[in-house]
Every structure is written in structure tokens, then in C-alpha cells.
């Protein structure tokens, strides 16, 4: 029986291994992590992450050929194929701080593999890593090999949160990069055989190691660039009276461009986009490609500009101050159908409003009160370190309360800010909300989910990203 072990029981490791286990009943799959609480959660009925469809998949194979364990060394030593899915946070100090990936956890995983292995291994990079990481891992393993042979493969994940299980069952492509040597090609084939249980062969792409590593960074950079492009247009639409939804619809009809990732919003978030672009910037700079680095930097700058622009719209619309005013925050996750808050634009928007002494009442159907408080008090990039290395439960932000539904969050509020496109925000009883708010009552729609005309008829002053401005907002500065 082929044995697979995955180091790291997070957003990538858990779902990916569950789907492999379900589709490959003849393979034993063990997910290991040093976090006892995380492994306990996977072994309970309350999984540590929310992802539509994940629960059902885990239930079907847990205890049969899918196992979760903290006995890392035992399962690593027994495995034929080891997936490494550990954190690769952005460095916060030293060489490349603020841009380069911190490979501390990767390196310690590689050294541990070398220490405990007694048989040949295929080691698969599953975390998003900077180009040439495989080479570094290879060196650590070969210099500590004790006669054991290792093959390193790059198999980047292309999961979108909220649709991760669907993405795993029906991927656009599975990418496997390896050495173009006889042993390297054999290792590529072994991993290909795993995916071939359910993925059509023409969707499994094989490349050299560097191409696979760079493809992941490039894919995320291209997607983020599309979002920043439409967000840049949204600012111009507001200035000219154009409607960004109409513009993106017209642009997306061009078959060379296509309609996806052209929705204007308060900005992109998630664990990958910003981190991968910063990584790309650092690699370009290290290779003397300053112009290329500056090009990709601009994608992040526009994203930061969009969040700042939103905060400035809120403050300038409300008589240039939100001090002491209650603002209902609708949604905190970085997008709907996930409880993930990593790099969510809501953090920067909330911090911007708190900086002007607003009182916030935050509601999100999937994010816990503890997580919201952590995010609002944590330093940038701290979120990407393992939980046990993050600051302990921080003191709560006094101006922030967590609401159990949208109506509580909006009661007596001066304004609502919609920051996640949860479907329920489209069907709220806005008449009831209006009646319970302070007047004038404002709605700042950062996701373009509400019916603007209907809300204006009720009496709201509405700002919707990239849409013709409410008469109230005309002649007010978009940027402080």
C-alpha cells in the first residue's frame, strides 16, 4: 500500500489530503501537525476550517484511509510520498523583510525528514514557495541523506477558498514539476498516478521544477492584477459618472479578456495574493529586474489605495468625522463562503475607521469574535506564523463589539459598511434597518451587492464602489 504523509493540517493540507483519500481508497493518507488543538479539531465533528463540502468528504474517509496525527516523525518515516504544506510567511525582519518568504518552517521540515527517514522518499512542495526553494530543500536532504535517495517535486495548489473542494475534484489543471532525470521522471510519474485516479490525463501538466514554482506565483499575480485593474477603473468611473459594472461587463465580453475577476470591490484579500506578489517582487529585485519589480508592486499599491479610498469616502461623507459614531460592519471574511480572514480588506478598513475613533459593531456569519479581535490587534504578517507562535489572545479593542446578526450590528448605527459579499446581505430587510438607524443613514457598499435605487428610495445615502455618486457625495474628496 502506498503511504502518503502531509506535514501541515491547514487550509491546503487538510482538504487536499481528504480528497486524495476519498479518490484513492488503496492509499493510506495521514495528515500530521505539531498543533495538538488543530489535530484534535480534525478528529472531532467540528473541523478547524469552514469550506463547503469538506465535512462530507472527511466523514467518508476518516478512520478508513485518512488519519490525522501529532506523531509527525513516525508517519514521515513510514511514508513513500511526503507533502510539505507548512507556512511560508513574509519575513518581518532581516534580509528581504516585508517581501521575501520566510522559509524557517520549510527548512525545519526538511531537516526533520532527513533525520527520521529510513527509506527513499518523494518530497512534494505543496506550500506556495519562492522559485528555487526546491533546490535549497534538495541540498539539505542530500547533505544529510545517510544513503537515502530523495526526489523533490513541486505541486502547487490552485485552490480558491469557498470552492476548494470543487477545485480539488475538478481542477483546471494539476501541475507537477520535477527534475528531468530518470529518477526525477519516475517520481513525477508516481505523483501523476495518484492524481490520475480522478483527474483526466490531459489536465495533469508536467514541467521542470522552476517552471512549476514560478507558475503558481505568476497565476496569483495575474489574478490580483485583474482585480487591481478593475478597481483602478472604479475610481475613474466615480469621477466621470460611468458605472463600473457596465464597463466590466462590456470589457469581459471580449473573449481574449473574459468576465472572471472583473468585479470592483473594496480590495482583494486572502492568504496568497499579496504574499505571492511581494515574493515575486523580491525575486525580480534579486535578479536585477527593477522595472519588472515595480510593475508588480503597483498591483499592491492600487489595492492599498482602494481600501484607503473607501475609508476616506466614509469619513468625508459623514461630515468629515466618524469620531464616537457607531458603524455597522457587514462581513469580515475576505470573501463569502469562507471563515478565512487572512489579509481581508476589512482589517485595513476597520483600522482606518478606528483611527478616526469610530465605534464598530461587526457581524460575519462565519468569523469568530476572537478571530476578529486577534486580526485587529495583530501586527502585519503575524497571521501567517503557526498559531502557537502568534501573540496569545490579545486584549480586545474597546471600540469594537461583535454582533450576532446584521440587525443588531446596524441598530442605532450612523452607517453600514458592506465588506464581504455574503448572499444574506442582498436580502436583508433594509426598511427595518433604516428605521433603527441614526439619520442621515448611510450605506457604503464595498462589494456592490445592494440594490442602490431601492435603498435610496427607502431614504439611505448610498455609496457603491465604481457607481455614479449619490448627489450627497458629489464634490466631496475621494482621497484625503
UniProtKB/TrEMBL annotation:
GO terms for molecular function: NAD binding; UDP-glucose 6-dehydrogenase activity. GO terms for cellular component: nucleus. Its EC number is 1.1.1.22. Keywords: NAD, Oxidoreductase. InterPro entries: 6-PGluconate_DH-like_C_sf (IPR008927), NAD(P)-bd_dom_sf (IPR036291), UDP-Glc/GDP-Man (IPR017476), UDP-Glc/GDP-Man_DH_C (IPR014027), UDP-Glc/GDP-Man_DH_C_sf (IPR036220), UDP-Glc/GDP-Man_DH_dimer (IPR014026), UDP-Glc/GDP-Man_DH_N (IPR001732), UDPglc_DH_euk (IPR028356). NAD(+) binds at residues 8-13, 33, 38, 86-90, 127-128, 161, 272-275, 342. This is UDP-glucose 6-dehydrogenase. The lineage of its organism: Eukaryota, Viridiplantae, Streptophyta, Embryophyta, Tracheophyta.
Amino acid at each position: 500500500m502506498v503511504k502518503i504523509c502531509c506535514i501541515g493540517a491547514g487550509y491546503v493540507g487538510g482538504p487536499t489530503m481528504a480528497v486524495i483519500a476519498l479518490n484513492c481508497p488503496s492509499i493510506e493518507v495521514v495528515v500530521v501537525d505539531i498543533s495538538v488543538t488543530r489535530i484534535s479539531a480534525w478528529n472531532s465533528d467540528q473541523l478547524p476550517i469552514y469550506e463547503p463540502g469538506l465535512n462530507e468528504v472527511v466523514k467518508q474517509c476518516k478512520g478508513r484511509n485518512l488519519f490525522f496525527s501529532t506523531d509527525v516523525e513516525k508517519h514521515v518515516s513510514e511514508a513513500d510520498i511526503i507533502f510539505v504544506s507548512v507556512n511560508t510567511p513574509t519575513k518581518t525582519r532581516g534580509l528581504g523583510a516585508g517581501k521575501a518568504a520566510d522559509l524557517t518552517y520549510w527548512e525545519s521540515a526538511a531537516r526533520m525528514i532527513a533525520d527520521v527517514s529510513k527509506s527513499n522518499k518523494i518530497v512534494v512542495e505543496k506550500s506556495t514557495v519562492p522559485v528555487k526553494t526546491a533546490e535549497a530543500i534538495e541540498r539539505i536532504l542530500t547533505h544529510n541523506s545517510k544513503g537515502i535517495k530523495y526526489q523533490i517535486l513541486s505541486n502547487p495548489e490552485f485552490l480558491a477558498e469557498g470552492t476548494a473542494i470543487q477545485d480539488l475534484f475538478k481542477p483546471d489543471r494539476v501541475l507537477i514539476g520535477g527534475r528531468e532525470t530518470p529518477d526525477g521522471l519516475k517520481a513525477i510519474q508516481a505523483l501523476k498516478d495518484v492524481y490520475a485516479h480522478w483527474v483526466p490525463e490531459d489536465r495533469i501538466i508536467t514541467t521542470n521544477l522552476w517552471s512549476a514554482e514560478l507558475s503558481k506565483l505568476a497565476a496569483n499575480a495575474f489574478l490580483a492584477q485583474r482585480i487591481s485593474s478593475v478597481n483602478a477603473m472604479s475610481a475613474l468611473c466615480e469621477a466621470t459618472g460611468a458605472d463600473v459594472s457596465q464597463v466590466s461587463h462590456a470589457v469581459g465580453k471580449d473573449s481574449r479578456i473574459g468576465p472572471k475577476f472583473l468585479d470592483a470591490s473594496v480590495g482583494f484579500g486572502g492568504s496568497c495574493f499579496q504574499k505571492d506578489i511581494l515574493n515575486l517582487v523580491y525575486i525580480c529585485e534579486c535578479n536585477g529586474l527593477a522595472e519588472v519589480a515595480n510593475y508588480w508592486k503597483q498591483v499592491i499599491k492600487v489595492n492599498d489605495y482602494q481600501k484607503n479610498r473607501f475609508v476616506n469616502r466614509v469619513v468625508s461623507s459623514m461630515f468629515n468625522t466618524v469620531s464616537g459614531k457607531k458603524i455597522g460592519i457587514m462581513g469580515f471574511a475576505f470573501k463569502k463562503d469562507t471563515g478565512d480572514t487572512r489579509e481581508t480588506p476589512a482589517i485595513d478598513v476597520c483600522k482606518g475607521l478606528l483611527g478616526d475613533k469610530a465605534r464598530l459593531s461587526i457581524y460575519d456569519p462565519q468569523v469568530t469574535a476572537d478571530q476578529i479581535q486577534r486580526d485587529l490587534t495583530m501586527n502585519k504578517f503575524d497571521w501567517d506564523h503557526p498559531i502557537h507562535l502568534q501573540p496569545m489572545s490579545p486584549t480586545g479593542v474597546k471600540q469594537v463589539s461583535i454582533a450576532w446578526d446584521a440587525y443588531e450590528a446596524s441598530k442605532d448605527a450612523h452607517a453600514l459598511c458592506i465588506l464581504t459579499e455574503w448572499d444574506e446581505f442582498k436580502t436583508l430587510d433594509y426598511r427595518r434597518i433604516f428605521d433603527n438607524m441614526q439619520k442621515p443613514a448611510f450605506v457604503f457598499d464595498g462589494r456592490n451587492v445592494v440594490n442602490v435605487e431601492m435603498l435610496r428610495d427607502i431614504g439611505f445615502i448610498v455609496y457603491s464602489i465604481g457607481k455614479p455618486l449619490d448627489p450627497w457625495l458629489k464634490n466631496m474628496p475621494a482621497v484625503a
